[in-house]
Amino acid sequence: MASPVASSIVWLRDDLRLDDNPALSHAVGLGLPLTVVYILDEESPGIRPLGGAARWWLHHSLTSLAAALAEAGSTLTLRRGPGSRVIRDLVAETGAQHVLWNRRYGGPERSLDAEIKAWAAENGIEAASFQANLIFEPWTITTGSGGPYKVFTPYWRACTASGEPRSPLDASARLPSPAVAGSMKQAGSDALAEWSLLPVSPDWSGGLAETWLPGEAGAHSRLEDFLDGPAQDYGTGRDLPGMEGTSRLSPHLRFGEISPFRVWHELRRNFPREATPDVGIFRSELGWREFCWQLLYANPQLATRNYRPDFDRFEWQQPTAAELEAWQQGRTGYPLVDAGMRQLWQTGWMHNRVRMAAASFLVKNLLADWRLGEAWFWDTLVDADAASNPANWQWVAGSGADASPYFRIFNPVTQSKKFDADGRYLREFIPEIAHMDRRAIHEPWNQPDVQAYPAPVVGLHESRERALATYQKLRKDQ
Ligand code: FAD
């Protein structure tokens, strides 16, 4: 039997792209036969299993990645199991001397990577990691006393003062092939269909497929469309759910189909002098993504524990099953909340302003624990992100970092009159009230012809007072 030749493994995780992929570029530089693997890891301790909408996305993203790799002369190996075992198996099968990946920042993911690095060091294998998915890695931006930032504005000031982010690396047109004939066994792969990532009976993914094109090509065309249009007026457009005023890059960034470095530099190229404040506002939204990750890095339990421990004594109420279902299904009787929750169910995405209003309704008007809402979003968002989802839920609840003060309670009627004045967004998602005019549609309960649409599940005034009283109690008990 021929002895194994040197080879390398690139382990792709939240970086399903060829463009600006430092681990892949490093492998190309080594010039050795290359195995590119994606591992569906639902077994390593603490790693949060993907929700339903994200599983749908992953299936399609991997399909697109496999095609792109094939075009570049490589293949995608799919394996399922605990990351450390799978990597060790692959090294044994291929004789690889280099294992390369781009870094992740969640607690369990970092422990797993550390375990593999330690094993590799003991066995004389190079395990190297690279920066790809965050422009500002959490440990590089710290306060004067060396700790993590708790407030966004000074955090972002420190980031932007730290110098221009590195330029993105172009994708290599050719990747080393996975095996050298006769000398290295090519690693076997699972069939993607065996992973059952797509929903069946019922298949609820029709609206997702109509809305999205998962994969690197889809990500780049979203960015181009954004730069050609909405970016010019982002400061105003981003608040209007009835129009395409934002980039809709979130699921692509979540799965790493586009690099934040690429987005940053494309903005720079398209708006060289930053003639408008809109570009700065958009860039600071990318900053919120980075901020959420540095919060998760410093607080690995962000999805389960209050960031502010005083909230451990907050008296959340268990909503009734009917109330919770009304919220989940978009039947609360408040059109902006309902349009948002229906948009989420149909497309796997919700406009940011509406996310804030829908989340506020659950945690303040229904007084439900933010973890209930976080879990629902985790399951239904295509961009469900281990950092941004809990950080934003805690922001809305008041228990988070730099949070909106608890006493600021979004009024869904005022919000919809202000940000969807003509009711275009409400009409798109709530056919029962689509016939109403721009004045009536925000408060349909005042209309005679509203039978098909539910009455409000709670009164806004009483529920607001109840929330404020509960918060006062927390403050008094301090
Ligand atoms: P754009 O306005 O085009 O912004 C560009 C990018 O900046 C986004 O793609 C996203 O990566 C980032 N970004 C923008 N706003 C935020 C923010 N507030 N926090 C963190 N990053 C931000 N975003 C997620 O990516 N995943 C989540 O799971 C998630 N859950 C959320 C839950 C709640 C309750 C709320 C209020 C917000 C949540 N967000 C989440 C943040 C925000 O709503 C989405 O990032 C945004 O709506 C995505 O649309 P876009 O790509 O068009 O954003």
Strand content: 5-15%
The number of distinct structural domains comes to 3
Heteromolecules bound: flavin-adenine dinucleotide
Termini separation comes to 73 Å
SSE layout:
Layout lengths: L7 E5 L9 H9 L3 E7 L11 H20 L4 E5 L2 H12 L3 E5 L4 H16 L3 E5 L21 H9 L45 H6 L4 H13 L5 H4 L12 H5 L5 H11 L6 H22 L22 H9 L5 H13 L4 H14 L4 H11 L7 H10 L14 H8 L4 H6 L30 H17 L2
Parallel strand pairs: 1-2, 1-4, 2-3, 4-5
Bound molecules: flavin-adenine dinucleotide.
The site of flavin-adenine dinucleotide has 27 residues, from helix 9, helix 11, helix 14 and helix 16.
Structure notes:
The chain has about 475 residues and is mainly alpha-helical. It folds into 3 domains: about 1-130, 3-Layer(aba) Sandwich (Rossmann fold); about 135-165 and about 215-300, Serine Threonine Protein Phosphatase 5, Tetratricopeptide repeat; about 310-475, DNA Cyclobutane Dipyrimidine Photolyase, subunit A, domain 3 (Orthogonal Bundle). It is built from 19 helices and 5 strands. It has a 5-stranded parallel β-sheet with strand order 3-2-1-4-5, sandwiched between helices. α1 (about 20-30) links the parallel β1 and β2. α3 packs parallel to α4, α5 (about 150-160) packs across α11 (about 275-300) and α13 (about 335-345) packs across α14. The termini are far apart. Flavin-adenine dinucleotide binds near residues 253, 289, 292, 389 and 396. Flavin-adenine dinucleotide binds near residues 383 and 396.
